[in-house]
Amino acid sequence: MNFCSTRDPQMRVPLSRALQDGMAPDGGLYVPAAWPAQEALAGAGPAALDLLAARLLAPFFDGEALAAQLPAVAAEAFNFPAPLTPVAGGAERLSVLELYHGPTAAFKDFGARFLAACLARIARPDRAELNILVATSGDTGGAVAAAFHGRPGFRVVLLYPAGRISALQLRQLCCWGGNVRSYGVRGSFDDCQRLVKEAFRDRQLRGALPMSSANSINIGRLLPQIAYFASASLGIRAAEGVNASFVIPSGNLGQAVACAWARQLGLPISEILLAHNANRTFPDFLSDGRWRPRPAIATIASAMDVGDPGNFERLSSLYRDHETMRTRIRAVSVSDEAIRSSISSEYRQAGLVLCPHTAAAAHAYRMLPDSAKRDSHWVLAATAHPAKFQETVEPLVDKTIIPPAAFARWRGAPLEAEEIGCDLDGFRARLLAA
Ligand SMILES: *Cc1c(COP(=O)(O)O)cnc(C)c1O
To answer: 195-220, pLDDT tens digit by residue?
Structure first.
């Protein structure tokens, strides 16, 4: 199958090109040029995540050398589970989709590992080292570093907003050494994202360094995320005969796109409700149809601090106009205060210990009218393990959160990273120097 740019529907590139480019040359984002026939899904049922991923994604790999390796890629990326756990108590059907059982305890491990597994299998004639540039609001960087660390042929360069991520996240970004390098940008996540985009457009850098991106602007991150929305919805339909509806903590809108693509593929998904934090660019767009990106505001759900969500372009290429988008997706903005009270009340009332991002989604769900809850089984996408945000969560639930075993690796890691300014010059010089 071919992919085109959100800004040029006539363009055609194969998947391997889209994966290596990261962003389309015209500054747009790659999207599928066509959708596989929904009949292909008839009879699909629950299956192991890696097998389901290989089956669902096969049409996107059609005609590629990489197609033969898709089962191996999926097995490598999906080597940890995404359990769907029913929430006890309450009359309605609600489950939590736990997406945080990977090496860095956030859903981004799925996409980062899938992308790394693909890129490692694409033969590159020039054999030059590929530079993976990543802007991170906290969780992406760790996941990408973990996925590429020690892989020959790759160098990872991480940019994060200095002083705006948790202590544990900082350790996760800075503990690697080897082929991973981190820079703290004196600015916001949007500044980091802009620097990466500028680096891609910069003539001098383009000429000197093969570069790709592992942000959710890279389609190789988003495609695998379809698989867990598929798995959860197929499991629910098989068990209860109803569709799933998802409530998703959202920032850069990558998960939103993956879930919308899952529904586009014909999976049994009814509603998609996005929970943003105080960064309300997308919820505001849905209400009045005007796209007004703005500087990011720092919140306690920091991985969603995005004022100019990159994947909006993909949503608008799927749902051509504002009216259509409004009927297909809903979004709300949740304040820090509501997130805090959601963390404590979900613990008291449902026994759930949630990270701040997932707590925003829980709040959005609780605000739904009963009529919206009746016809489907709602699923809360739990995007990170609460131990990643221990400083925020522990006082609110008044108990110690036991971290996953993988965390031992970060605890003792040194906290060193160089800080850089928001302008391309400093970043360019560092990229070229190494
Ligand atoms: C990245 C992230 C989000 C936001 O996901 P998007 O795909 O950028 O919308 C939400 N929660 C956590 C924990 C994250 O790391």
So the answer is: 998 998 899 998 899 888 888 789 99
